[in-house]
Amino acid sequence: MSQRYFADQALLPTGWASQVLLEVDATGTLTDVSPNSTPGNAQRLAGPVLPGMPNLHSHAFQRAMAGLAEMGSSQPDSFWSWRERMYGLVDRLTPDQVGVIAQALYIEMLKGGYTQVSEFHYLHHDTSGQAYSDPAEMAWAITGAAERSGIALTLLPVLYAHSGFGGQPPNHGQRRFIHDVPEFLKLLERLAPHLTDHPTQALGMAFHSLRAVTLKEMQEVLATNPIGPRHIHVAEQQREVDESLVYSGKRPVRWLLDNVAVDERWCLIHATHLDDTEVRDLAACGAVAGLCPTTEANLGDGLFRAVEYAAQGGRLGIGSDSHVSLDVVEELRLLEYGQRLATQQRNCLHDSAIRPVADWLYRSALAGGAQASGQPIGALEVGKRADLVVLDGSDPYLATSKDDTRLGRWLFGGSKQQICDVMVAGRWVIQQRRHALDDANRAALTRLFTEIN
Ligand code: NGQ
Ligand code: ZN
């Protein structure tokens, strides 16, 4: 049975359109998108409709420590000391606990405007570092949580083999992450049948970073996985750049581009520290830069060179990464504000086709996020999955906005509170700002935080 919806305004690939009829078939796919229509018996949506935003980078378990690592001390603090605390959390979590954290997290994501998440999944083993009797046990905690929350998922099992450049042995804090290539390929094989031809879930893969895998390991894995998204953390911290230069004489992004065929299937997470030729060549290769502005700010990473990268046609998307914020509005706003603070100018991210900065941000992140997900999403058009975010049409700021000010009102003057309803694959998961599991989640999370903290 197909369903019909009617929106006074909807953001289509060509820009804002009015009086839009949307038809969704039983598989959750858009089968008709017609502007300038009449509603007939279609269900009227509560306000302006957007394609749901893909969240291209998540470590679900890290949500459990969001806000707990914000204490100064007499010692300087950094990404690396934060990582020690994060390893402290990783030490004790069980698959059940990860399932509870991820379920609550994914529901918060839906309320924050994300309809899809790419989970960069590297917490594989038990607390002693041994594989679970089912090596995919932790992965099932993630897929189950996504299923229960209703968010769509691209699971990216991560190959993590070493602690530093040149194949250094992993350290104690990393024992739950570690595979050799054959074990890793077995994990992918175990997951593939469950995540192939699934309506809302797909399988990709990731390399943790150039610190954690060697070229030979990457080549072996890539040879057996010719398709699907592939993500990697790269050049997030200056220290990684310095270590890369010592190891190979090349900066991390340069080394990656020179040694591996990086193309549209790739998503480079952070890519914070780039020189001019890296900006140029990353933009040209068609990969997505996976930017996580609130986490990058939280961890003191530095600023991605977004203006120069975008001017050269570079593709980007957004992720909530460590989950200090679960909010499309905050993530996109900070992406623009970082550039303003760095350049001492206003309205940095736009182009000749899209002048409203909010529209440029939203549409760019949609396109890049969809590409990095490997799923048919990111646009209200026939054949794409029906992933919708419905804003509050009775909100005075939104109700009185025009096509060229609507997203500006929301992203620069509003908040995620203006999100009313969210649909994933034709199914309502948030209705009137509520999810069916809200109460259960609150209780489960309170219990869990009491247990682990
Ligand atoms: C991670 N997270 O793997 O969770 C990383 C930190 C690392 C972020 N970069 C650890 N946000 O890169 O070694
Ligand atoms: Zn990450």
CATH superfamily of the largest domain: Metal-dependent hydrolases
Instruction: Tell me the overall shape.
Output: globular
Strand content: 15-25%
Spans where pLDDT lies below 50 across 5 or more residues: none
What this model shows, in words?
It is built from 15 helices and 17 strands. The radius of gyration is 21 Å and the shape is globular. With 453 residues, it is α/β, with parallel strands linked by helices. α2 runs parallel beside α3, α2 (95-111) crosses α15 and α12 (357-373) crosses α14 (406-413). The strands form 3 sheets. Strands 6, 7, 8, 9, 10, 11, 12, 13 and 14 form a 9-stranded parallel beta sheet that branches. It has helices at residues 79-90, 95-111, 137-149, 181-195, 215-224, 238-248, 252-259, 276-285, 293-298, 306-311, 328-343, 357-373, 396-399, 406-413, 438-452, and strands at residues 3-12, 15-24, 30-34, 43-44, 49-51, 53-58, 114-121, 152-159, 201-203, 205-209, 230-234, 266-270, 288-291, 315-318, 388-391, 419-424, 427-430. α4 (181-195) links the parallel β8 (152-159) and β9. The chain has 2 domains: 3-51 and 379-438, Urease, subunit C, domain 1 (Roll), CATH 2.30.40.10; 53-373, TIM Barrel (Alpha-Beta Barrel). The mean pLDDT is 98. N-carbamimidoyl-L-glutamic acid binds next to loops. N-carbamimidoyl-L-glutamic acid (NGQ) binds at residues 59, 83, 209, 233, 236, 295, 299, 321-322.
